[in-house]
Amino acid sequence: MRLFLDTSVLLAAAGSGRGASRFVVRRAAQQGWDLVSCDYCAEETRRNLPKLPRASRAWNEVVAPRVRFIGTRVSLDQPLVFPKAKDRPVVITALAARASWLLTLDREDFHLRLGRDVYGMIIATPGEFLLDLRAKGLI
Q1: Residues 32, 38: Cα–Cα separation, whole Å
Q2: What's the predicted TM-score (pTM) here?
Q3: Residue 73 main-chain phi, psi, to 5 deg
Q4: Do 82 and 71 meet the contact criterion of CB atoms below 8 Å apart?
Q5: For 11-41, how does the pLDDT look when each residue is reduced to its tens digit (9 = 90+)?
């Protein structure tokens, strides 16, 4: 299963050792999850790391080594109506990467504007993702 992690999830995973974001990152290999993000999210994460105490070390040692970063895509061969220009490359890249899930903590910009899924890719928080798998008996 391919999971696309947006900037908010990358930052949360680096900034806190106790949340669902870090749990997803730590358990990915064991669960067979392919963690993917893009260079756009990685750069945005690096820019914001100084705002979080001790996050830089976790980013370098725990998070970044477990995520495969791909080039950001800005065009899609299907229509996408999404008004948030800064987040559009995230959605397009996640779709191009054929992610099963787009994990984000940005409910307002993703969930409220796009809904629960887009072209079959489910949009959820890491916590919602884990609860869904637990309900299905997959973790």
Answers
A1: 20
A2: 0.87
A3: -100, 145
A4: no
A5: 999 999 889 999 999 999 999 999 999 999 9
Distances (CA, A) of 81 to 11, 76, 87, 88: 26, 11, 12, 9
Say which amino acid occupies 78.
Q
Show the domain range for 8.
2-135
**Residues forming a β-bridge with 37:** 69
> Number of helices (H) and strands (E), helices first, in the chain?
7, 6
**Which of 28, 20, 15, 22 has its CA nearest to residue 55?**
15
Place of tokens 């890491």: 126
Residue-wise pLDDT for 83-125, tens only, equals 555 667 888 889 989 999 999 998 766 655 556 777 788 899 9
Q: What is the DSSP letter of 72?
A: P
Structural domain count, the chain: 1
The enclosing domain of 40 has a CATH number of 3.40.50.1010
Beta bridge partners of 101: 3, 122
Coil, strand or helix at 78: coil
